[in-house]
Amino acid sequence: MTLEAESQLKALEKQLVALNDMLQELSTEMIDGKYTPYPMYLAHQEEAKIGEMIVDRTEFGFPFSINATTVERFLELGIIQKERLGGFLKTYGNPKQKCCVFLMAMPEPQFVFYAFKKVRNP
After folding, report:
1. H/E stretch holding 101
2. For the chain, what is the domain count?
3. Which of 103-119 are b and which e, b meaning 16 or more Cβ less than 10 Å from the residue's Cβ?
4. What is the four-CA torsion angle of 43, 59, 55, 112, rounded to 10 degrees?
5. Which residue range forms the structural domain that includes residue 55?
6. How far apart are the first and last CA of the chain?
7. Which of 24, 45, 63, 91 is deepest in the core (most CB within 10 A)?
């Protein structure tokens, strides 16, 4: 892994920690509302035409803007191949416990799986 890719992954992880509660809530709403069984997120720095922007990086001072979309959309676009969907979903696991973020960064876009932090009751 290049230094640049490693740096981008660390920046994304830090951002996901800051957005943990919001992403966990949105994922649950998307699943419970029967919008999709597998919410997907797209992290990008340029304009992306996949999904709906939920975090504008310039507005919040984050390194990446985040769009919400679905696994079905990724299949339609060919980002995930149908014959690999089973393995992908196995890796994804429980979408109420973690999320999948497609990091659109150079040199190569990649999927990042982020386990939500447990919400503790006071």
Report:
1. strand 98-103
2. 1
3. bbbeeeeeebebebeee
4. 30
5. 3-98+106-115
6. 40
7. 24
Residue 12: both structure tokens together: 């994304």
Residue 68 makes CB contacts below 8 A (sequence gap 6+) with: 26, 30, 39, 40, 41, 42, 51, 52, 54
Q: Count other Cβ atoms within 10 Å, centred on residue 78.
A: 8
Any bridge partners for residue 101, and if so which? 41, 112
Tokens of 11: 């920046």
In a domain, residue 120? The reply is: no
Helical spans, DSSP H, in 19-112: 20-32, 57-60, 71-76, 85-92
Q: Which amino acid is at 62?
A: F
